[in-house]
Amino acid sequence: MKQKFPDEAYFKNELENIKNETELDQIGFNYSYTHFNRSNYGPWHYSSIQYLRQREKITLIGRVNFTDRRVNGSSTNSGLLYEFETYFKNYEKSYSYFNIGFGNESVFPKFKISYSYFQDLGKGWEGEMGYRYNEREVEKINSGVIGIGKYFGSNWINARTYVFSRRKQNNIHH
Predict the structure, then answer these.
(1) Collapsing DSSP states into helix, strand and coil, what is residue 25?
(2) pTM (two decimals)
(3) Contact 87, 96 (CB under 8 A)
(4) Is the pLDDT of residue 174 over 50?
(5) Dihedral sign of CA atoms 10, 20, 90, 141 in order
(6) Which of 8, 38, 86, 130 has the smallest CB count inside 10 Å?
């Protein structure tokens, strides 16, 4: 199109819009302040910074999360969680989600991994099947997840259920 209509502004804009929909590099920052209506309790601060790289069939995200929980104005529990997350297209009507994270286990899990497979069911409906694993100092949790979602324009409503097994670390013999 560009060679055939080099001076056509409409086609230039459309080509640029298509490129922008499939290629995106973005830096994001999030901050959350949670106040409690109890004396001497809180506030909690949560922040994260992330880099997102989106291409036609894959999105890659690197994220660092920080939280600081306070009691009587002093920090009582804080930590970092490092995450890598990706969304990738499997087939024409399905995609997958994968996440892995390592953290300061006093606030965040010391290790977590997640995977979900999403299938387009037609008419804006989507099904999900997945697995979650969280490891903390005192326990390991394995979870299966099943979900259903519905798109309404650019909005998405999702219902999920988790089935999990929990294993206490002090019951494990090395």
Answers:
(1) strand
(2) 0.79
(3) yes
(4) no
(5) negative
(6) 38
